[in-house]
UniProtKB/TrEMBL annotation:
Listed GO biological process terms: polysaccharide biosynthetic process
Protein's UniProt keywords contain NAD: yes
Binding site for NAD(+): 30, 35, 86, 121, 155, 263, 327
Positions with a binding annotation for substrate: 152-155, 204, 249-253, 257, 320
Recorded family membership: Belongs to the UDP-glucose/GDP-mannose dehydrogenase family.
Protein name listed in UniProt: UDP-glucose 6-dehydrogenase
Species whose genome carries this gene: Halanaerobacter jeridensis
SMART domains recorded: UDPG_MGDP_dh_C
Length: 449
């Protein structure tokens, strides 16, 4: 089929490349000239495992094209996917200005039947509004349908999620676009849920809000474990074994970040408010998450009350592993708190260093590798659980540190091992190893020798 995808970000570029990989003729459109020029020359604007290979292959075989001209995209396709950003406005609502710009050009350009599919995350009722808007601004009188087809991919595994989705949601009550989109999605071999457009739009927000709720829930259980006793990893295993709960998204940590959970939770609260409803649960989810992002530095301050001029090592800057995305990354809060307390920061991330430089500028020191970031610092803060941070040479880490303080925001290490290695170790919702434990371990070791 002939498609265009408008917006070549995480969603647009990955979806476009995957549709091309399945044999469709895809035109990817973006207003960012540098991005489009780069893509034509094999430069990926984002890091996603497996993306570069399929983009290059399909660009070379002619299934995938890149342009800044939406007019060209509209002309070249029967189905137009809108995948532009819908960032949060000051008031928490979604900024739909890019969707509006795209809808206007589509209205002015189309000359024959088109299916306009919204893939961007947009508040309920946006499809109705886009439909009315296109009808109002149409230059040529032709038929069209507007469908909601929300996207559920995760960054860091976007290609694999797109190729193997849990479900595909097609939100339209019209038969013609439903049948065409069914056929387009057949090769994904996933269940297709047909629903009305409003429900499809709400499904997207409800899914993200629910997943975010699981995370804030387990983070609060972790906070209770820290105060009352217990180990949140064991608790998560215990409750997650119940199929009705499931063990997914029950990893306690330093709070959720990224381009979506933070903005989508706020947006659905806003939608509720606009409809005279107080969405109390998700409101609290957001509040708990803000607090959670501060817990690592608070733990450090309990151990080192005066951080002035102390150098602290931060491992992991992106909001999760396998991505270079720094949007709403918990590392931002952690580093802000450290700097406010007068500390100096040495940081390392395997992929997100360039993005991080845009965020932190010259406020922190950027290191070339993990151990360089640890050397001569007072404490290690493990913020993002990249594979290489989960398998550190602990003896070397301890030797490089001025003080054996390790704050693990992702529960990557075994408590017993950290005690044996002599670390003062604080993680999330698990018993902490204090200086007293470390001294005791050393005494036992000395007696044994
Ligand atoms: N990032 C993610 O993992 C997911 C994002 N979503 C949703 O998908 C949408 C897109 O998100 P991302 O891909 O992360 O955004 P992004 O910010 O990575 O990419 C958006 C792209 O749209 C382009 N753009 C903006 N205005 C345009 C216009 N008028 N014409 C053509 N291109 C234009 C921008 O230059 C940019 O390249 C959002 O609504 C987001 O909530 C949904 C599922 C997953
Ligand atoms: O709408 C979106 O953009 C996407 O948002 C999330 O995907 P993403 O933000 O890429 O990444 P996740 O794996 O969901 O992680 C989000 C955040 O939650 C945190 N998290 C996740 C899981 C967990 O158990 N604990 C936890 O703290 C991660 O560290 C990360 O900061 C959803 O998982 C996708 O289904 C959705 O399409």
């Amino acid at each position: 089929m002939k498609l265009s995808v408008v917006g070549t970000g995480y969603v647009g570029l990955v979806s476009g490349a995957c549709f091309a990989e399945l044999g469709n003729q895809v035109t990817c459109v973006d207003i960012d000239e540098e991005k489009v020029e780069g893509l034509r020359n094999g430069v990926m604007p984002i890091y996603e495992p497996g993306l570069e290979e399929i983009v290059e292959e399909n660009y070379e075989n002619g299934n995938l094209e890149f342009t800044t001209s939406l007019e060209e995209g509209v002309k070249n396709s029967d189905i137009i996917f809108i995948a532009v950003g819908t960032p949060a406005k000051e008031d928490g609502g979604a900024d739909l200005s890019a969707v509006k710009t795209v809808a206007k050009t589509i209205a002015e350009t189309m000359k024959e039947y088109k299916i306009v599919v919204d893939k961007s995350t947009v508040p309920v009722g946006t499809g109705d509004w886009v439909e009315e808007f296109i009808a109002e601004h149409q230059k040529n009188d032709c038929d069209f349908d507007v469908v909601s087809c929300p996207e559920f991919l995760r960054e860091g595994s976007a290609v694999s999620d797109t190729m193997n989705p849990d479900r595909i949601v097609i939100g339209t009550e019209d038969q013609k676009p439903a049948e065409i989109l069914d056929e387009l999605h057949q090769d994904f071999n996933a269940p297709i849920l047909h629903t009305d457009r409003h429900s499809a739009e709400i499904i997207k927000y409800a899914a993200n809000a629910f997943l975010a709720t699981k995370i804030s829930f387990i983070n609060e259980i972790a906070n209770i474990c820290e105060r009352a006793g217990g180990n949140v990893v064991e608790v998560a295993k215990g409750i997650g074994s119940d199929h009705r709960i499931s063990d997914k998204f029950l990893r306690a940590g330093v709070g959720f970040g990224g381009a979506c959970f933070p903005k989508d939770t706020k947006a659905i609260v806003k939608t509720a408010n606009e409809n005279d409803y107080d969405f109390k649960i998700v409101d609290s989810v957001v509040e708990v998450n803000e607090q959670q992002k501060e817990t690592m530095v608070n733990k450090l301050k309990n151990l080192l009350p005066n951080l002035t001029n102390k150098t602290i090592s931060v491992l992991g800057l992106s909001f999760k592993p396998n991505t270079d995305d720094m949007r709403e990354a918990p590392s931002r809060t952690v580093i802000k708190q450290l700097l406010e307390a007068g500390a100096k920061v040495k940081a390392y991330d395997p992929i997100a260093m360039d993005e991080a430089k845009e965020v932190f500028g010259d406020q922190i020191e950027y290191c070339e590798g993990t151990y360089e970031a640890i050397k001569d610092t007072e404490a290690v803060l493990l913020v993002t659980e990249w594979d290489q941070f989960q398998d550190l040479d602990l003896t070397r880490v301890k030797r490089l540190l001025n003080k054996p303080i390790f704050i693990d925001g992702r529960n990557c290490y075994d408590l017993h091992e950290m005690e044996q290695e002599g670390f003062i170790y604080h993680s999330v919702g698990r018993p902490s190893i204090s200086a007293h434990d470390v001294a005791a371990t050393k005494e036992v070791a000395a007696v044994n020798e």
